[in-house]
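User: Structure please.
Assistant: Input sequence and predicted structure:
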Amino acid sequence: MIPDVNRIASASAKYPKPSPDFRPAYGTAGFRCNASLLGSTMFRCGLLTAVRAAVLGRHCGLMITASHNPEADNGVKIVEPSGEMLPQ
């Protein structure tokens, strides 16, 4: 299956980065920052996870994190077929 690049670009445009230099770090908590800044990151993680699952031919996932952090402090982790977090 060949992805429709124009549809992906159109959908991606709906989730712009908060600023051109926005680059959240990916660490043990995944991509973590204020929830109001994560829309573009969540969208791109979803794309990456879908492509990774297709390439591997296995299920992958996304985990939205919040746990004990303040309400506005959220994150997203990419989960491998093994159940482990995608390494950095």
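The chain has a mean pLDDT of 88.
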